[in-house]
User: Fold this.
Amino acid sequence: MQSISYARQQFPPEVIRYAIWLYLRFTLSYRDVEELLAERGLEVSYETVRRWVLKFGSVIARKLHQRRPRPTGIWHLDEMVISIQGRRMYLWRAVDSEGEILNVHVQARRDKSAALKLARKLLKKQGFAPGVLVTDKLTSYGAAKRELGLSAHHEQGLRKNNRAENSHQVVRRRERKLQGFKSAGSA
Assistant:
């Protein structure tokens, strides 16, 4: 992959990367990033930070994703209820045993077909089947596992899936910061 071109940018690449990192790593608004940069003596408007995130954010994320090591063989699957423009939706999430997010899927239903869609996307994206699946007691996961013919050990339990439950905290913070999600993409 080619390196990122920061041509025709007024600020050095280090400042741009730092501003993008601040916005994406912490639950900060564009105006918060503007204030943090102003404390360091950099006059940057929040609109400039927004343009940087839109232009360079996805490219930087893709480069980081390529350098990420292969996920572990223990996958935690979970779903959570979110509201998108007043409609009740489910955010399905897969996390490995180290807390790395493997896949995210927004669906209107909480049934076997939604769990099956998450599992298919996950297997296609990762390229290998897990050794252990850890879920809550939703029966849709077991039905999807049977339909796909996965030989992974399926663990279910009340607190066994805390790894996936903890990964939802970031989404909840972002939801509060944005005062609710406006689209599935923002979720």
In short: Residues 13-67 form one domain. The beta strands are 74-84, 87-96, 101-107, 132-135, 153-156.
